[in-house]
Amino acid sequence: MMSFDASIDVAIPSGRLPTELLSEIFLHCVDGVIDISNTITIPLLLSKICSRWRDAAISTPRLWSRLFLQLATPADSQVELVRTWLTRSGGCPLTIYVFWEEPPFLPSHPVLNALMEQSARWQVVFCYLPSVAFPSLSRVRNRLPLLTELSLGTDDDLPLTANGTLNMFEVAPRLTQIECVNFAPTIFNFPWSQLSVIPIMAVSIEDSVDILRQATNLEQGGFIFVGGGNQRHPLRNWKVQHNRLRYFTIMTPPWNETIDLRRLFSQLTFPFLENLTICNLKSPFSAEFVQFLSRLKSLRTLHLRKTAIVDHQLVQGLKHLPSLTSLIVHSSPQDAPTVTGILLAALTWKFFSDDSKGLMLVPKLKKLELTINRNVAQQFIDMVESRVIVNDEIGGNPARLEMIRVRPTEELGEEILCQLVLLREWGPSIAIEDLEKGITTI
């Protein structure tokens, strides 16, 4: 938030600046963060400095086109504020963040009713509501011509489970991004075929396959798998080949990190996927996962964080990823390490081995982030050296590592640090992450 110096005589500059320039200055006073300060406090402050500033602020509709609201009861003052903002924002598209986290929880709220009167101007909407309030949004059906981004969430203990019962967002011709937090998205009818981005969505395996089959234009998807479905039955033999997907993230919730996703991996083919991220998956990785990687012909970034994948499985998977340029493998201290001597030996480029004629792993690798311990520190140095000290005049060499980040689980010792300093002289950016102090660049 911009600070204001009380010692400045605001009467002089406000009298000299054209209103149009003053309006632009006001818009720069609110940054891109959607919070109470930027959407309510600062616009009100600017309109109270002097009469000229007030006139300029009120005549700047974009200054009033965003709202961040924590719904309360009674709601009279909030309704008045909302109506003021809706009036002052003129015909501008609206960005609205609404949180209803304090009881009493009712089927509707006066603030929601006021906002729905202007649903034709909704552009970006985030609604975190009790599940009982979602049906009240039915009034916006067929009245969402500008809506492009929608985020829905609830904090109810019981998740919403009924399929396709709410259709208020089914018709939104410009809607391309949807996320659902803490409940299954299947309660809503969404225009899946329009979507290009799903930042985060809580799903079962069956839900995810169904969504991927319908969201044919999806380019970026993030799924939190809250259930594995019925492990005894196949997924209706629904093989999915998605040709538009470029970024895909798989996560699990903290209360269920051992969901078995083998049935999912066997269903998916993403021939043009460029970035795969898997976080907090503690169930065993298997042959199905390796086969899944073998179908990712365009993958450039593989990010594994706090997973149960073992070293030899990762080695087998990397054999299928010659296009990979970035590899990130982080494990938590309580997990068995993925980065072992086996993995590091496989990543070490062997210049005078028959393997170097085409069987070496990830020949295009340029960025590497690993969690390591002291037991494998020297092997890590040897591996990095084989991919940094490269004679470009000799054919068959790997790409040179350009960025290296290390997350040690313990002190690595002065000798290892000195070797990293020497390797830096060959050009790569090298950083060691201290979990207490942050990133240290060598």
TrEMBL record:
Please state what the protein is called.
Predicted protein
Which PANTHER family would you find in this protein's record? F-BOX AND LEUCINE-RICH REPEAT PROTEIN 6, F-BOX DOMAIN CONTAINING PROTEIN, EXPRESSED
Q: Which organism is it from?
A: Laccaria bicolor (strain S238N-H82 / ATCC MYA-4686)
Q: Which InterPro entries match?
A: LRR_dom_sf
